[in-house]
Amino acid sequence: MLELAGVTSGYRAVRVLRDVSVKVEAGEFVGVIGPNGAGKSTLLRTIAGSCTLQAGDVRLAGQSIVRLMDHERATLGIAHVPEGRRIWPSLTVEETLMLGAWRLPDRKVEATALLAYVMELFPRLKERLHQRAAVLSGGEQQMLAIGRALMSKPRLILVDEPSTGLAPLMMEIVIEALRRLRQDSHIAMLLVEQRIQNVLDLCSRFYILNRGVLLEPTPGVRLTRAEIETAYFGEN
Fold it and tell me: Is domain 2-86+155-233 in CATH 3.30.1330.10, yes or no?
């Protein structure tokens, strides 16, 4: 589904990622962990097309997408749930969700079915369908951001720090929804998350990103917490 090969990227002349290679198979949930400032959000933005690719290739279903703008990548089935949610506060929950369906060719029919699925996945949003996003709690806004991405009927969803700033109960609701999404759909996901246990619970495998360099643990080999922390923080 997704392949990054030797990617170096950042913001204009500033290099953040260095020679990064990533693969995500169709329907696979893959995690990315690492300390603050490691380049995790930059990795997702590179895939989504919102930061500068300096070297390497990004391929979706075998097709290079490096020359495509972010909105063109969205039409191919890439949805991005950014860190901080980026919700328009003046729009209602329903308006925000329907905005996510802008690219669908048969928008009226498909959006109705997708909206019903999002409401089932997040019953709290159904209760607040006609309320403005500004009055939602942080957890509800995170549900809304994920729901907006799902409304685009993506093949690949990029989720950046979904548990950040959430109360424990809200975090569990969001993580449980992602767990159900993994079971019920064929969507692939690249998940950036600070909480290592969430990544281990949700993802079939994961990468560790530190100082712009990516490490993938050997498949089938379960790292100890000490080994993860050494890769996470680096040698002293």
Answer: no
